Amino acid sequence: MAEETTGQRHKFWIGLIALIILLIFLYFYKPFEIYLLAHIPQIHFSNVIFWFASLVGIVGYVIAHWQSFRSQFGRDSSGLNVEVLVFDSLQVSILVAVIFCAGGTLQSVAMLGEHLVNRGAIVGSGFGEKLLAIILMVIMAILFYLLHHMVRAFRDGWTTRRPPGGRSSLVD
After folding, report:
1. Is 76 exposed, middle or buried (0-12, 13-18, 19+ CB in 10 A)?
2. What pLDDT tens digit does each residue of the chain (172 aa) get?
3. Contact 85, 69 (CB under 8 A)
4. Cα R_g (the chain), whole angstroms
5. What number of other Cβ atoms are within 10 A of residue 111's Cβ?
6. pTM for the full model?
7. By the 8 A CB rule, do 144 and 98 touch?
8. What is the domain partition of the chain in residue ranges?
9. How far apart are CA 160 and CA 20, in angstroms?
10. Is 43 within 8 Å of 36 (Cβ atoms)?
11. End-to-end alpha carbon distance in the chain
């Protein structure tokens, strides 16, 4: 039984590595770029980082839901704990939002770097817009991350922290 799960894990990682190699190949394959630009409007290879983050977020969302449903049906086939599924779904959605914000931040940093390499004006509206985009995306990622921990706290229940030493100052 343990050999079957080990074999399944190896197949998963081999498939994931093959997918990453395929995506890298397609990124550098010029006819694929020409095909995409001709058939999908408003797609550019200058924003490929955000497209990759979007792909990772969507695939991660699907895999997390699949694992959540599989674990819920595996425990007790007669009943389904909807509350656990809702909190799992909410947590995964928030973490996907963090992935999207991180991808947007990386894309904004790449655009700012391109602006600076092309000798764009440092004191100007173009530089300020790109810098503001980076700052806002980082703030949004932090807020979504904190929201994720708040949802986890609601799911697990709030616990009050005791002062160190094991004794309360109110009881003497």
Report:
1. exposed
2. 556 667 777 888 888 788 888 877 877 788 877 877 777 776 666 777 787 888 888 888 888 888 888 777 766 556 677 777 888 888 888 888 988 898 888 888 888 888 888 877 777 777 888 889 899 999 998 999 898 888 888 877 766 666 666 555 555 4
3. yes
4. 23
5. 18
6. 0.63
7. yes
8. 11-43, 47-156
9. 44
10. yes
11. 57
> Residues 6 or more apart from 1 whose CB is under 8 A from it?
none
Tokens 């408003």 appear where?
Answer: 42
Q: Which two tokens stand for residue 30?
A: 């010029």
Alpha helices in 42-124 (DSSP H): 48-75, 82-117
CB 115 within 8 A of CB 55: no
- pLDDT value at position 172? 46
Task: For residue 64, give every residue at least 6 positions away whose Cβ sits within 8 Å of its Cβ, in sequence order, or none.
Answer: 88, 92, 95
Alpha carbon distance 58, 66 (integer Å): 12
Residues with Cβ within 8 Å of residue 162, at least 6 apart in sequence: 168
Answer for the pair 35, 74: CB distance below 8 angstroms, yes or no: no
